[in-house]
Amino acid sequence: MAAKTDAPLVSFRGVQKSYDGRTLVVRHLDLDVARGEFLTLLGPSGSGKTTTLMMLAGFESVTEGSIELAGKPLNNLPPYKRGIGMVFQSYALFPHMSVAENVAFPLQVRRMPRAETRERVEKALSMVRLHDFIDRQPAQLSGGQQQRVALARALVFEPELILLDEPLGALDRQLREQMQFELKRLHDRLGITMIYVTHDQEEALTMSDQVAVFNDGVMQQVAPPAEIYERPCNPFVAQFVGENNRLAGRVMALDGEKAQIQIDSGETVTAFAVDDLYAGDPVELSIRPERVQIGGNLGVCDNRFSARLTDLIFLGDQLRGHLAAFGRDDVVFKQPNSEDRPKIASGDEIQFGWRWQNCRAFRAQGKASG
Fold it and tell me: Residue 5's pLDDT is what?
């Protein structure tokens, strides 16, 4: 695996992008990508993640700010001079060329000698486990095999950086999961820097060293997957990455990071204050369904309430249920399908709760203190 240095491989500084001179689709982006890192840009459609990737690749110009690769300014360099590998969702293979010819194309453009080209093509196809398909046409391959050819083509000229724009979006679920494993295996083995764009949160959490969450042209948070999931910095990240129970309320009292919140239905909830909050501030609470305890598992819970179980769904390795509480009937919990799980059924009156550290209190968006 390639050694990592302290200096980032990629740097975005004050980068902004507008297509019409008025509306910014990427705003005030400052982002460093370490050498050897697998970074995923995650967000809904129109959030700015793909535009960010295209500016780095050179297919879109930067309206303001600068992008550097290994300390070299990229703003005025055309794509073919950046030395960046690119993998698209559409594969972009030449249908009239064999697998070997497709993979060799970047080397031919660089006028590499024929013998070295052949050696590199065989090596790249071996990396993606397609050496036996070297003489086939793209039409003779499955979707997953075609995507691996596209990946080999990006690897063949040994770039410092590979960009992947929703590369698995056209594949079925089983094939997509298999390709996630293949990509991560290659990344771990080669130590090459990869920047990956997706709107699929599960894909981002599974594959990445770091995840940058985008919304409305702004990078909301960049952190390792576990931190993004367990410690989201705002309500958008909490809701977009994973599932959440959301409650609205107002701060009654504070003791350091421990906040007493009166929710809109009247109950008092103890929560972890993510933002700097003050008494009277309106807040949004976020509780992951798997952090909601039910029945006899309430010993560690600071918050305890009564509810009626409205439905219980069997999902194989886990159970998913809905509770009628807080004046609503959509409070979700998830529990492992273990032998010692509580024996409950729809219509039962049960106790449920959670630890205060697992209930995150954010200042209600658009609401200032004071």
Answer: 55
**CB atoms inside a 10 Å sphere around CB 254:** 17
Tens digits of per-residue pLDDT, 220-246?
A: 999 999 999 999 999 999 999 999 999
- φ/ψ of 203, rounded to 5, equals -60, -45
Alpha-carbon torsion (340, 345, 346, 351), positive or negative: negative
pTM: 0.88
Res 48: pLDDT: 96
Tokens 């999931």 -> residue: 229
6 CB contacts (<8 Å, ≥6 apart)? none
- Does the pLDDT value for residue 367 go beyond 70? no
Our CA dihedral for 214, 219, 224, 230, rounded to 10 degrees, sits at -70
- For residues 189 and 182, what is the distance between their CA atoms, to the nearest angstrom? 11
Helix (H) or strand (E) segment spanning residue 213 = strand 210-215
d(CA 181, CA 365): 37
* Residues 49/55/60/65 CA torsion (nearest 10 deg): 110
